[in-house]
Specification:
single chain, 352 residues, alpha/beta, Rossmann fold, 2 domains, five-stranded parallel β-sheet, 14 helices, 5 strands
């Protein structure tokens, strides 16, 4: 039986989305020994497959977990067998990708891997982990301007990235200790040569200045990749470092920025390497005026809201669309409809 796959040819890049991970990927992909791809999300389901909660499936994940654990306990050498099965699963994918490309190291760049750092580290102790950190307000601004724009309900898709990922990254850095390779976006774009050279040294690969010109480095293929920011340049640039300051020019985005700093808290921001006081000062102290919603509601689904919250969201949206008076009438009509829907749901017979 072959030795278990421990990830000796893997580099995991973990970050929040819109942190510059595609830029870092393009730089590293300029090395002859490195292969990468669009986000794979390959390890999320196997990692969550060993957790209680966090995964929903039509077949019933909790029952599946109970049955599998019974099998492992009574008929195998134990839970390590599941880990070996996941490692074999991973070996098939990554070895095949490297064999096809001729590369020696695979860069796995999937921001949601921040949620499973502990599992990845346990499964692949020989893999290297690069933690890419960026000013959280810059992340928020990039999410707003790249994906959400005026489709405010899309912000819900990034709830875990905005609220949970930062703590996961801090916890991951603590878990790995000296083995954690920390790169800051602001430092990378300010000194691409020095930062990339230091990173290559930690990864055990030779640095070349040619890596910084990614104009001839093929972009990752697939839907799950950045098709916006990195394509605008052929080399790292610091032109986007202060773009987040535009948040203060729009009342709704300013409200979200202040709420986001409050949600993360002074301590977590400090652990990430950013000063809440400095970020708040940069946003200014002017009161937010106009028709705005708090971050809490924009990150909530209607089903989880109280009627008061539903009404607040309806008023906000309809006033933006129809103006103050007509918007208020439409919001009240939607609230009445929601009340009727909830009453009907409460009295609906439970199926046997």
């Amino acid at each position: 039986m072959s030795e278990p796959y421990l990830g000796d040819n893997l580099v995991f890049v973990v970050s929040q989305p819109r942190s510059g991970s595609t830029l870092l990927q393009r730089i590293l992909s300029g090395h002859k020994d490195i292969e990468s791809s669009a986000e794979t999300w390959l390890m999320l389901q196997p990692a969550y497959g060993g957790r209680e909660g966090g995964l929903e499936a039509e077949y019933g994940h909790d029952w599946s977990l109970l049955a599998r654990n019974d099998f492992l306990q009574h008929y195998t050498d134990g839970t390590e067998v599941y880990d070996d099965a996941v490692r074999a699963y991973a070996r098939v994918f990554y070895d095949n990708a490297l064999r096809k490309s001729g590369g020696k190291i695979f860069i796995e760049k999937t921001p949601r891997y921040s949620l499973i750092i502990a599992e990845l580290h346990r499964l692949f102790p020989q893999a290297k982990f690069v933690f890419l950190l960026r000013n959280p307000l810059a992340v928020l601004a990039s999410v707003m301007n790249s994906f959400v724009k005026e489709k405010w309900h899309w912000l819900q898709e990034f709830k875990v990235d905005l609220l949970k990922s930062p703590q996961c990254l801090v916890d991951g850095i603590k878990l790995l200790g000296d083995d954690a390779i920390v790169v800051r976006y602001e430092e990378l774009v300010a000194d691409p040569s020095g930062q990339t050279r230091a990173l290559c040294e930690r990864l055990g690969i030779e640095f070349s200045e040619a890596m910084l010109d990614y104009s001839s480095t093929p972009a990752a293929k697939g839907f799950m990749t950045d098709r916006v920011g990195v394509q605008q340049h052929s080399r790292p640039t610091d032109k986007s470092t202060d773009k987040w300051l535009s948040l203060k020019d729009d009342p709704q985005q300013l409200q979200l920025a202040r709420d986001y700093l409050e949600a993360l808290g002074t301590g977590l921001l400090s652990e990430l390497g950013y000063s809440r006081q400095e970020l708040e000062a940069a946003l200014g102290t002017a009161p937010v005026k106009g028709n705005v919603l708090p971050l809490r509601l924009l990150l909530s689904s209607p089903a989880s809201m109280s009627l008061r919250d539903v009404y607040a969201c309806c008023r906000w949206e309809r006033k933006r669309e129809y103006g103050a008076f007509k918007g208020e009438i439409k919001a009240l009509a939607e609230l009445f409809g929601e009340c009727l829907r909830r009453i009907a749901t409460a009295f609906r017979p439970t199926p046997l």
